[in-house]
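User: Quick sanity check before I run a bigger batch. Here is a single chain. Can you write out its predicted 3D structure?
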Amino acid sequence: MKKRCEWPSDDELMLKYHDNEWGFPVHDDRKHFEFLVLDAFQAGLSWSIILKKRENFRKAFDNFDPTKISRYREAKIQKLLNDPGIIRNKLKIRSTVTNAKAFLEIQKEFGSFDKFIWQFTGGKQKLNKWKKLKEIPAKSPESDAMSEELKKRGFKFVGSTICYSYMQAAGMVNDHTISCFRYREVTE
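Assistant: Done. Predicted structure follows.
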């Protein structure tokens, strides 16, 4: 049996996400936007709830296409607020539209969101060496800086803790515990 991080427990979706996505360095702008959206919706909820609704989010939010989302009007927002397949939080839904617009501005300025976002870890994955889940922080100086910069650029729901979760998901930090089989696999 493979040795894993403790957090996925025996939940099939969580195990699949841990084994195939979490912590693997992301360099695709659409995937960056997806993780930003999902991490914002996860605030105050469990990640397992988000994973169970992930496909519904993909359908509801046009496969996380920031260009399409940036053009959402009130009718579409109302439709999302009535969609039982997603988290129907008015502030989070509206912030997704706001964030899509800010995301596109960053792409325009830097050529890609990827180029912009990886500057917070010096362009490479930060390799941590945690032995136990309880050692992993909820935020870092890098996530503090990212949060501050994203807020300056108009993003919502990008507090330091959300940014750190995003950095973990996008592989900007390797927070697999050192005994986990994925620890070495996700290292660039």
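The beta strands are 126-127, 173-174.

User: Great, the batch can go ahead then.
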